[in-house]
Amino acid sequence: MTGLVLQSTAGSATMLSLLTFLGILVSVVLSVVILVKGIQGYSQTGDVALPGLAAGILLLSGAPLLLNVLLTSLTGTGLGTVTVLTNLTQLLGLALITYVIYHT
After folding, report:
1. What is the reported pTM?
2. What sections of the protein cross the membrane (predicted)?
3. For the chain, which residues make up each domain, given as ranges?
């Protein structure tokens, strides 16, 4: 016998999956909180840039993560399609933020 010990990685894989899901959840929740605060700021100040920036942040961070999880979990969408859709969502968020910065 060589002294090799068999170890199960099921516990660490489960923990990694749980931490990944928790990170995604926190990112989505924070993005939605930023959107709500942007809308509240608009209603208080009338500054149209606030909801635009908040929506851009949502599209840049929270929406692609949620879209990725939903498409891979609930549909049979391929990895390439999911990657293209999430990247387009992020690009739309960046475009919205850029538009708000330069046109308000």
Report:
1. 0.78
2. 12-36, 48-67, 79-102
3. 12-103
